[in-house]
User: What shape does this take?
Amino acid sequence: MTVNSSSSATPLAKLPIPELHDTVARFTEAARPLFSADEFEACLAKLNDFVATQGPSLQARLAERSAQHENWLEEWWNEYAYFTNRASICFNVNYFFGFRDAPQTMAQARVAATLIDSAVRFRDQLESGSMEPDNIRGKPMCMHQYQYMFATCRHPGEERDWTEVYQRSESSHIAVAHKGRFFVLRLPAASASRHADIAQIERQLQNVIDTTEQLERAKSIGVLTAALRDDWYAARECLLQVSPENAASLRALESAAFLVSLESAAPVTTKEFSLACHCSDGINRYFDKNFQILVFANGRYGFNGEHSLTDATTDMRLCNTLVHDVEAVAAEAPVAGVLAPAVGEQPTAEELQFAFSAELLGHIERAVEFFDATVAAHELSTLSFDSFGKEQIKKMKVSPDAFVQMAMQLAYYRQFRHVPATYESASTKAFARGRTETSRSVSAHSVAWCKTMVDHPETTGLHAKAELLRKSIAHQSQFTAQCAKGCGIDRHLLGLELALQADEPRHALFSDPVFTGSRHWRLSTSQISDSILAAYGWGEVVDDGFGVAYRIEGEALHFNVVSQRLGSARLCQYLSDALMDMRFLLTNAHKQPHEIKAEVDAVANVLTSIKLLSSSPNRPLSPQAATTPTELHAAEPEARFRSPFAETPVANAMVDELDRLPSNEVICALETRLSRFVKESLSWALPSTS
Assistant: This one.
C-alpha cells in the first residue's frame, strides 16, 4: 500500500540529531535524582570519559547516517524496540482500545458487519489518496505509518521478527475468528446502498455465529501468537511443515486486510472490558495481525493493535471512523433482527482448515500453559476518577498531562517509597517517519516534592509544597515540548550506542548501572484522550514495573494499570488519593492553617450530623425506596439528605458527592474519607512550621 508519507506538499523536516553536550547535560539532570550521590558520580565519570573519547566519532556517524536516510533512527528503533524483542507481544507489546457504547444496542453480527464496511471504506479512501493529511493545530504530521495499517502481519523469526506487507490483489479479504476457528470473508464490490452492503455482511457473520462449533483449546492456532517469540517461531515452523494445507490457510489468514474477532464473552465492567480487549482467553485472536477488531456477544466492541510499525495515535484516526459509523448505523438502521433482502453478489465465508501433528499439539499445549500462567501472574486494575478532570486542572493554571504525571509519581512514592524511572511517550510525527521519544517525567523538583509530601510533611508549609509541585509540572511540560522537537535524550543515546561497529570496544558507559537503570521503566505511561474510548491500555515493559495508560477528559480522569501482581489496585487507590491531595494543595496554598482547620471541622460536622440523622427514627437519611445509588440520585431534591451543619464549599461538595449513596453506605464512606483526610492530608496540610 502506498501512502504519501510527507502528508503535505512541503516535505517534512528530518528528525534532528541533538548536540552531544546538550544530551549529556539533559541526561545528567534527569538521571541524578534517581540514584545516590556515589552511584551517580561513578556514572558521571564514565560519561565525561565517553564525551572525551568515543562520543564525538559516534556523533559524526549519526550525522553521516542522517544524510543517507530519511530518518536516521527509524530502522534502528524498529529493530531495537520490536523485532529483536523476544517477549510475548500479547502481554508486552500490543495495545488495546475499548470503545464507548453505541446509543442504541445492536446485535453482534450487525456491529461487526458495520465495522467491516467502515474499515474497508477507510482503506479505499486511504489508498485513493483522497484522505486529508493528519495535522495538529494546523501543523502537518507524517503519514508514513499508514502504509502498514492494512494488509500487514508480523512474523516470528529465529532471532528477529519481521513484518510482511501484502499487495492489494492478495489482501482484499477479511479474516474472521469465532470460537477459536478462523474464516476468510470475501466481499463483493461496494454498492450504492451502504445499509444493503452491511446487511449482506451481517447475514454471513450471523451464519458463522449460528453454525460454528467451539474448537477445543488444545487445537488453537491463535494462542500460539501470544507465546514468547522464540516459542512461536518454532511452533510456526512446525505448523508449516505438517501439511501444504496449513501453509495455504496461514497465508490466507496473515494476508487479510485485517481480522475481526467475534467474541463469546460479554464484558460489562470497565475491568472486564479491558481484560477482554487486552487478551481474553487467547484462542480467538491472532496477535501478529496488523489490527484486530473485537466484537463481543453483547454488542460492545474494541481494538487490538500490533505495535511494531504503527503507533496507537495513528490507529486512532481509523478508530474514530469506526465508532462514528457504528453510531450512525445504530441511529438509522432498521430494527435489530430485520435484514435488508439479499441483492446481487453475496459475501462468502470459508473456514480455514489446519492439520495437526503430535509435535504441533505439544507446541499448542505449552502455549496454552504459558498464556494461562501469564494471565494468572498479572493484575489489571482500572480507576475512573470523576471528582474532577481537565477543566478544573486548567483552572489551577497547570498542564493537565503533567499534573497527572506528578500524581503517578506521588502514588508510586507512597506505595514504594522511591521514585522510579518513568517513561511517557512523546510523539515525533512532526518529522519525516517520526515515531516517539521518551519524555522523562522525574526531575529533582518532583523527587523533592514527593519527599516533602510523604517523608517529612511537617517541615514545609502548604505554599512551599505547592511551589515545588508547580515547578515539577513546569519542568515536565518543558521536557515533553523538547522531545516533540526531536531534542530528547533516549533516542539519541540509543543511536550513539547502535552506531558502534561490531569489532569496536563498547564503552563502559553503556553498561553502567546508572545509565541502564535510568531507562529501566518501572512506570511506562502514555496518554490518549479521545471521547470514543471507554478503555485503553497495554502491559508492563519490565517485569518489575507497571504499564499505566491514562485518559484525560473534561470532568474525569481514567487509568488502566497492569503489573505482575505488584499492587495495581493499590496503585489506583494511591492515584485517587494523590489527585485529591494535589487539587487540595494547589487550590488551598494561599490559605492560612486556621482556615484549613475550619474546613476540616466542617467535614467533621457533616459526619456527626449524618450519624445523628441515621439514628433518628423521625428523620430518615434518604427515601426508603431509594435502595441503590442510582435510585437515590433520581429522588426528589427535597427528599435527599442535606446537612443542617457546615454550609461551606468543602462540606457541600462532599454532601453532593455522598448523597448519591444509599444511607447505609454514606456513614462508611464519610468515615473513610474523613479518616484519610485527617490522617494523610492534614499530616502535610497543617505542618508545625510554615
Q: What stands out?
A: DSSP finds 23 helices and 18 strands in the chain. The first strand starts at residue 95 and ends at 99. Residues 597 and 682 are 9 Å apart (CA to CA). The radius of gyration is 28 Å.
